[in-house]
Design brief:
Helix content is about 35%, strand content about 20%. The chain is an alpha+beta fold. Helix 3 runs antiparallel to helix 8 and helix 6 packs antiparallel against helix 7. The two termini are about 35 Å apart.
Length: about 400
C-alpha cells in the first residue's frame, strides 16, 4: 500500500490579499467603490484558495499529495500574471523585426489626474491615440516611412499614486510609400529628437482632450487643470537601443503584465499599516521601505483598476495585424534593400505546460519532493458555496 505524504503551501510572506482581508471593510466604510472594484478585490481575496475550488494531485513515484487551488485569472491580481507575461513575450519575440528597437516612455503631468479619474476609459483612449499620432507623424516627417509600436499602459507611480504613462517599443525601421524597408533613427541614443517629440505629444493630447471635454460640456469643470498642464514641461523619455530585438522585447516584457503592487514588494502588514518597497527616483532610484495607512493603501490600489474590457497593450503601424494585412507586409526572410533578413521564427507545436517549462525552467507537473515523478490529478475539489453576498463584502465575510 502506498504511503502518502501531504504537502501544503506555507505562508512565509505578506500578500495583497492580506491587506484586502484586514482593510477591505474600512475601505468600504470610507470610500464608494464601483461594482468592478468590489469584484476585483473579491477575486484577489479568493485567488488560489478553497473558495475557487481546485484538485488533488498525487505523485506517481513517491505518493506525495498536493492540493492545487484555482486562480481567479483577473489581470489586476498579482498571482495570475506570470504565465500570461511569459507567453506574451514569447509571441512578440517571434514576430519582432530583427532591427534596433527603442524604449520610449510618454508621461502625462499630475495636473490632469482629476480629469483622468472623472472618465478613465476616455482619458486612456485619448492617451493611446496621442502617443501613436505623435510617433506616426514623426516617422513620416523625418524619414518618410510608416513605422510601428507596441504600447503598454501603466497608471501608477512607485508609491501607488496616480501616474499615467505609456511604455512603447518602437523599431528603428519603417515601410516607405514605394514599398521598401528603410532603417531609421536620429542617432544611436535617440530615435527622434526628444524635445520635439515632447512638444508634439503635449499639443496633440491637450487638443484632443479639450475637444472631448467640450463635446460633453465638461471643459469648464477642468479648464484650470488643462491650463496648468499646458504651462508644465512635459517629458518623453527615450532609452538607447539595446543589443537586439529579443533583448528589448524581454526588457519591455517586465512592464507588460505588471500590477500596481506585487506581493514581493510587500514587507509587512501590522498595526493598521502596510509597509512596502518603492524606488525613490529623487535619490538615484534607490529602493526604500514606505509605510502607509492600510485603508489608504487599498484606496490607492483601486485607482489602478482599469475599466472592464479595456485594452492596455496595443499594437500600431507595422506591428498592427490589420496594417500588416492591408499593406501586404511579410515578415519573412527575403532580400531587402535596407534591412537584412526579416525572419519570423517558427516553433514546433507544444502544450501550454511544455511551453511554460521551456520559458521559465519550471515544470509544474514534476513532483516537488522526489523531483522525478509526475503529479497525477486524482480528484476534484469543488468551489465553496456560501449565501449570496455580492462583491467584496462576500469575500471579506467568508475568507
Amino acid at each position: 500500500m502506498t504511503n502518502f505524504t501531504t504537502i501544503t503551501k506555507m505562508r512565509t510572506k505578506f500578500e495583497l490579499a492580506d491587506a484586502v482581508h484586514l482593510f477591505g471593510a474600512g475601505l468600504l466604510a470610507k470610500t464608494k467603490l464601483t461594482p468592478l472594484q468590489k469584484r476585483v478585490l473579491g477575486k484577489i481575496v479568493s485567488c488560489r484558495t478553497a473558495a475557487l475550488g481546485g484538485h488533488e494531485e498525487a505523485c506517481e513515484n513517491c505518493g506525495t499529495l498536493r492540493y492545487s487551488y484555482n486562480s481567479c485569472g483577473d489581470r489586476h491580481c498579482p498571482k495570475c500574471q506570470a504565465t500570461k507575461q511569459a507567453f506574451w513575450i514569447d509571441d512578440l519575440v517571434r514576430g519582432t523585426l530583427p532591427v534596433k528597437h527603442f524604449h520610449i516612455v510618454f508621461t502625462v503631468p499630475h495636473q490632469l489626474n482629476a480629469v483622468c479619474l472623472h472618465n478613465q476609459r476616455r482619458y486612456y483612449d485619448l492617451l493611446f491615440a496621442a502617443v501613436w499620432h505623435t510617433l506616426r507623424s514623426f516617422g513620416y516627417s523625418h524619414f518618410g516611412v510608416e513605422t510601428g509600436a507596441v504600447a503598454v499602459l501603466h497608471t501608477w507611480g512607485q508609491n501607488l499614486s496616480l501616474h499615467p504613462h505609456i511604455h512603447c517599443l518602437v523599431p528603428a525601421a519603417g515601410y516607405t510609400l514605394d514599398g521598401r524597408w528603410k532603417n531609421i533613427g536620429y542617432s544611436r541614443q535617440y530615435l527622434y529628437p526628444v524635445h520635439q517629440l515632447s512638444g508634439a505629444f503635449k499639443a496633440k493630447f491637450l487638443d484632443s482632450l479639450k475637444r472631448a471635454l467640450r463635446k460633453e460640456n465638461e471643459l469648464t469643470l477642468f479648464y484650470d487643470a488643462v491650463q496648468q498642464a499646458w504651462k508644465t514641461k512635459w517629458v518623453v523619455h527615450c532609452e538607447p537601443s539595446l543589443a537586439d530585438a529579443g533583448h528589448v522585447v524581454k526588457y519591455l516584457g517586465q512592464y507588460t503584465h505588471r500590477v500596481a503592487i506585487t506581493n514581493e514588494r510587500i514587507l509587512n502588514i501590522a498595526e493598521g499599516k502596510v509597509t512596502f518597497i518603492a524606488k525613490d527616483y529623487r535619490d538615484n532610484a534607490i529602493k526604500k521601505p514606505v509605510t502607509m495607512d492600510g485603508v489608504e493603501f487599498l484606496r490607492r490600489f483601486t485607482m489602478h483598476i482599469l475599466p472592464r474590457r479595456f485594452v492596455k497593450i496595443r499594437r500600431f503601424g507595422i506591428y498592427n495585424h490589420t496594417t500588416k494585412r492591408n499593406l501586404a507586409l511579410q515578415f519573412v526572410e527575403e532580400k531587402k534593400p535596407d534591412i537584412d533578413a526579416i525572419i519570423k521564427k517558427q516553433q514546433p507545436s507544444e502544450t501550454n505546460v511544455e511551453r511554460f517549462a521551456r520559458l521559465t525552467g519550471v515544470n509544474p507537473c514534476i513532483c516537488p519532493v522526489c523531483k522525478t515523478g509526475r503529479m497525477i490529478k486524482i480528484s476534484e475539489l469543488p468551489r465553496i458555496r456560501s449565501p449570496a453576498m455580492p462583491g467584496i463584502k462576500h469575500a471579506l465575510q467568508t475568507a
